[in-house]
Amino acid sequence: MNERLLAFLFFLKWAKYLALALLFSLFSLQAQPTFPVNGIRHPETASYLLMNAEIHLDSGTVLSRGQLLIHNGIIVASGTSVQAGDTVVRIDMQGRFIYPAFVEPISHFGMPEKSPSPTKPDYESTRPGSYGWNDALRCEQSAASALHYSDESAARYRKAGYACVQTHVPDGISRGSACVVQLYPANENELVLNAASSHVLHFDKGSSSQFYPSSLMGSIALLRQTFLDGIQYDQAIRPLEHNLSLEHWRTLQSLPQLFVAGSPHNLLRASSLLSEFGIRGMLVGDGREYQRADAIRRTGQRIIVPLDFPEPYDVEDPLDALNIDLSDLKHWELAPSNPAILANHNIPFVFTSHGLSDPSQILTSVRKAIRRGLRSGLALYALTAGPASWLNVDRHTGTLHPGKTASLIVTDGPLFSDKSRILETWVRGRRFPVQERSLLPVATGRFALEIDTLRLHGAFSSVANKTEFRLLYADSSHYFLHAKGTGYWISGQLGRSGPTGPFMLFSAWKGAGSLWNGRAQREDGSWTDLILRPEGQDPPDSTNADSTSPVADTGTLGPVSFPFTAYGWSQAPAPEHCVIRNATVWTNEKEGILPQTDVWISHGKIRAVGKKLSAPGAREIDGTGMHLTSGIIDEHSHIAVNGGVNECSHSNTAEVRIADVINPEDINIYRQLSGGVTTAQVLHGSCNPIGGQSALIKLRWGLSSDSMKFEGADPFIKFALGENVKRSGGNQSNRFPDTRMGVEQVYEDAFTRARQYDAARRENPKSTRRDLQLEALSEILRKKRFVTCHSYVQSEINMLMHLAQRFDFRINTFTHILEGYKLADRMREHGAGASAFADWWAYKYEVYEATPYNGALLHNQGVVTAYNSDDAEMARRLNQEAAKAVLYGGVPEEEALKFVTLNPARLLHIDHRVGSIRTGKDADVVLWSDHPLSVRAKAEMTFVDGVLYFDRNADSGLRESVERERSRILQKMLRAKASGEKAQKYSPRRKRLYHCDSIGGDDAAETDETDH
Amino acid sequence: MNLTKYIALCLLCSGNSLVPFAQPAPAKPQKGTMAISGADIHTGNGNYIPSGIIVFENGKISYVGQDRSRLQGVDSVLDVPGLHAYPGFIAMASNLGLAEIEQVRATLDYRELGNYNPNIRSFTSFNTDSKVLPTVRSNGVLLAQVAPQGGVIPGQSSVFQLDAWNWEDAVLSADEGLFVNWPNPSVSRRQKSQEADPENQYLQAVRALYEYFDHAKAYALLPGNPAEVHLGYEALRKLWTREKTLYIQANPAKALVHAIQFAQHYKLRLVLVGASDASHILPLLKESKTPIVLSQPHRLPSRTDEAVDLPFATPSILLKTGIPFCLSMNGFWEQRNLPFQAGHCTAFGLDYESAVSSISLQAARILGIDDRCGSIETGKDATFFLSKGDALDMKTHEVTHAFIQGRSIDLDNKHKELYRRFRAKY
Predict the structure, then answer these.
(1) CATH 3.20.20.140 fits A632-914, yes or no
(2) Which of B394, B400, B426 would you mutate first to test chain A, the one with the most A CBs within 10 A?
(3) Contacts with A, B 146-185, CB within 8 Å
(4) CB contact under 8 A, A936 and B189
(5) Is A934 within 8 Å of A877 (Cβ atoms)?
(6) Domain B89-372 CATH assignment equals 3.40.50.300
(7) For the domain B3-87+410-425, what is the CATH code?
(8) Touching check for A828 and chain B: CB below 8 Å?
(9) pTM for the complete prediction?
(10) Which positions of chain A have pLDDT values less than 50?
């Protein structure tokens, strides 16, 4: 009779278990029914009754002396009076605690080794098959088909308390489908709980040898287009091409979308992208979510949170400690608070051990988090039922209610108290000991060792599952003894101290009574008996005290500042209501420069300009002897960007958007505020003729990337000409174009296609594939998007103006434009503006004809002329660059200042909002210590929207608080290390400064290329 | 006064000539006596002489002061009331004359192959015909220390004046220093992930320097002529007698400490170049009396947490602590902005005359040529210039005349020529 039937009859005796028995019979189907067996089939029919334990069925239900009945891996009953016959193995779990086993949402368990990244990138895909064009889209990957069970890896997870993991192939921007796997040695077919549990996405392209995408914004653009292509595949793509990648992609869209995002800002980026397509997904963070908890809450996304809290840094050498950023110090202090902060913000989250060097560290981390205020019920949920439900395996696991798999952990104390240890992990009814000590008896107490005429005194101790017998102090000075073993058995050496060496080897074991017996062999080979005789109490058990309570856990914590760096705000700043009195006001209007004038600011706007203004309730600021100008506008900037400013891979990357990768944590925002900058156009680099879309930001230090964007501004795009797009500087010159002749044809081709695209979209919107690259170009044709073009020599400038005229649009701005002076008249006729460097030259061949008189010549010809930075350092002193228009060519001072204020505002179409001091305009103003064109002028106060984002007086206070906060945390780290915590060496993150020609992302290069 | 001479001089200097640009010819040696009268003189040694007089003869300054009687008998007098006079500014640790176009390899002569190149020297490669030089000196930078770059020991520097036919008449001090790039002790994350023990790599690199110097020193002590000549060790000879300066380029605090220990170990004449972390080790710098060629004020703070204006304020910190320093800048064409970098620091605690000194006399002292150059003082070379306004402020900077060793140099340059050409177009 088969086992199932037997079991069925067995359970039929208890009518009240009828329902359960039905359920059970569903689960007890033989594993792998389709597989032939080479030999005799040995079905597994294990039944257990776990008794007398404190059983946590889920995060809210506890049985204080509970029982669990398990049959064939499934929990069939739980309660305080579960009846079971003699055919079950009873395990007395007196004093033990039972919890559901953990579920790991992120792993690479059982996945193939990652292939190495390519050294030299290809333009085209090298894959065989009718896949899509980009190899970073690995939609066809399926973790279930790649799965190869590894018991070594499984054991590491089980030791940590995990019974199942979600795993995926860690390669590609689309990584295909993940699957959920149980962790016991068996055929993969039996292990897979959910064969397609989620679609995994990532910003990193992985092993693809293709150049595209080479930046974070490129990855985002590729994903955005692919989401669109998935939607329009049937109507607009399938009639023209079969695309296996997109077909897989569409299947994957029915799964939960799991985005391995990383930093808080990447998390927000991933969320925005998913939201564009109405997707609520799961996002994997990096443990810094608390730094932007509000913004993350607003996304409504679910977050998978890693718990790899940093170790303290080694700060004993103060010169080394200098290099540690305050943000890293603060993160060390606040990281354990992350889960509690997320919980307080009602952000749904679960835990992952991903990122920990060993998953078994997860409990230590969770306990730290609990000590920072995380409720333990929520912690248990985030380890068990939470991930189980997110991964759609909650039918099987995550709690210990009847019907679930018997995947549980047994501990020797409450799970989250420091000394508790996981003794066993059960995976689907299979019992895996974690601590041997729980299975074998443990020897304790003092004993006298009697051998021949010798009588020595010692004591047992146990470390983990090892038993050790050591001599007590009085004897250990004359004799040495090494004896170790497991359970009730030890072996070792006994000798007299000194040079004579060991004279006896022995083994000993516990007998039936309290005595231990053993055999010893003398040096001469003869044998003798020995006895261990109990005498007295256990010595205090020091070995069990693997205390995990970190010293640094108590006491005050620093605030979460915005941004999370030095000089960040602890409290959000509010717009000032103030009046600046008696300053010299550079209006940039027909009124010119007004001496001894007041400017009244309220609600973010300039409320009035005039003499002796009545401004009731306004804070009075004395501007006597000082100068007030509108804020500096940097037309060409590359600050505040994550993941690269160049998508260098293709000649035309109109689809990429700098707005996707704005980084509000960049300290250069604050530094530039200190130089009076209030607005910056953040541009794509100059790597390709058609670069990406620009982002215009106000330097609202501390706000989120979205809130920094200049509301309602016209969209711009970056073009580039000349040496950079020819890739003259590098050796990767296999990308078209290689000449200025080719550059023209790139545009000719792009705009010809854009024109056709526009017509086709109008005619057949459904069957014409929406192409974000062509869409951006057609916006230019429709005069909805405007061009800023990096340019140097006159021939190419002329070429582009002609080309634009052929396509009936206008080049808005030529940037760099160092030979603009040669055709200033032509530019004026075309209507192009100029945004140049004041005096740069000789850094490449195409600027050998540059002259610092360029600005004056352009200006005098009536071209709207600006000076820009393209450089994080220079942007702090653009007023000085403007002064060079006075030095070289004698531009009047009032006009020279406009080179960095009103003129860039005009070039950016924002002069109705900023660029001059006029009632009703944005209160983006700077109060200078001196004549603003003087080398001695310091920005004393910089307002954006009436908010005082930089105040030189407050700045000196901030410096002191940075110092105080640093030393407070450094002291804490020293104490942490002194108390035995492992300290790590700090290696500074090199902060990358981008220029036009910078290639690669934040970590791509040790030093910057300084090309422009 | 010789009126014709004056007019000719003005024409020459004003740069209004419509003659197409060729490299200006170096000026003829000064003959006889000449005087500048009525200028406000910033002497470079900290003094300021309003409405002063500078008399110079055969290239040397014979009088500086306010005594108008000294104009008697002077061959020509340039009466320039309201103009400012400054000593010729000195570009330090530059690659002027060794580079023409940064991205055109064929025009670059400052980085030799290999890591230990002490015998490499800038002296004979200094290109007096560089189109860059006239654009630099027309902003008052009249002298330059020119040094090779790259590797551990890039080679030897020389000091030149910027108006010459070739390196022979350009040189003021040949092979005066040896440049060393101190290894970088800070380990980036990238290195950390790539290399087994980057910290140890730093120590190894430092040890290699010690070993090189040990061998070179032993070599120098060999009696008589060495059987086998080692050009590298030969280049270090004058270091041991302190006739040659050791310029160590380093920025992180730790590297600065190690560099000072290194020089003390060998008892060398040390100058630190860069030293952006100087403010973190002030007591050591003061105690060891190490002069500093400070890296350019126009750089970003080295660390996120540092004060936003620390690079502008470092000169005044050094001045207050009593540490001798001069300013420097990166690059070659950029050197024309040297005066403005000094000017910018005056808004951050550096007094004006000290700012002038930090790009003139202080530099000359470090170079060991302060007996001849660096200030407007009697007995020194007549190397100075006149500006209509404050020369440290771009708003007022306007160089009208410049003299190198008394020679009135042509202030025209390629940029002015292009300006003339295109102003004429429109």
Answers:
(1) yes
(2) B394
(3) none
(4) no
(5) no
(6) no
(7) 2.30.40
(8) no
(9) 0.90
(10) 1, 8-30, 438, 538-552, 1004-1011
